[in-house]
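Render SigE family RNA polymerase sigma factor in 3D.
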Amino acid sequence: MTRHDQVAEFTAMVNARWPALVRAVMLLGGSRADAEDVVQTTLTRCFEKWERVRRAESPDAYVHRMLVNSWIDRGRRRSSGELLLADPDSGRAADVDHAVRLDIERALGTLSAEQRLVVVLRYYLDLSERQAADVLGVPPGTVKSRLARGLAALATVLATEERGERS
């Protein structure tokens, strides 16, 4: 494969995956700007290792692993405990989809970082338990237990909010 073909293949992957990767980082608790920075860093590293990435058994899982590592690295470097859950770039405050998205982001913000990672990998990026385990470098049983605890916590948050809205 020529260098030109590799660049074209990489560009096609970026064009197809960019929105989902940015959204995944936002669901992990980052602002749009943070998410775009993390995805840009990830894709820069990905391009540098493109031959290895494209030959991987699951290139998407490889990219997801790099994304998670970039997110974790960024969190380690942050000195502030700031957590922005709303999308500041969206001017659609009255939009129902936007309101639902904000509710989801807020609910995810109540989870531990490990639970949030597993929920986003499984339900937003639609990875299998095995793929999520590979991305996180943990056994599938750990994914299952984190997912069970995360979903139980989300159910509690939603039930509490529902009772609060009805009173």
